[in-house]
Amino acid sequence: MKRFFIACIGFYQKFLSLDTGIPRKIGLTHRNTCGFYPTCSEYTKQAIEKYGVWKGIKMGIRRIGRCHPWQHDLYDPVK
Asked: Where are the alpha helices (DSSP H) in 1-79?
């Protein structure tokens, strides 16, 4: 189950993400859209790897809930 969720996040990062996916590669975005480092998808992926599926998803949702347009350059690794 853990591999499935990590694979879904990897698909999102490779194809759909505005920061790392196809939209960035074809020039639809020119700067990072995520104010956090690592990005929310990478944070969630790391949390799932470290804490398991349910706690990792919960941590990822909380992280996304803290996101807002005025958020820039905030270093927030998985603890």
From this structure: 2-11, 22-25, 40-51, 53-65
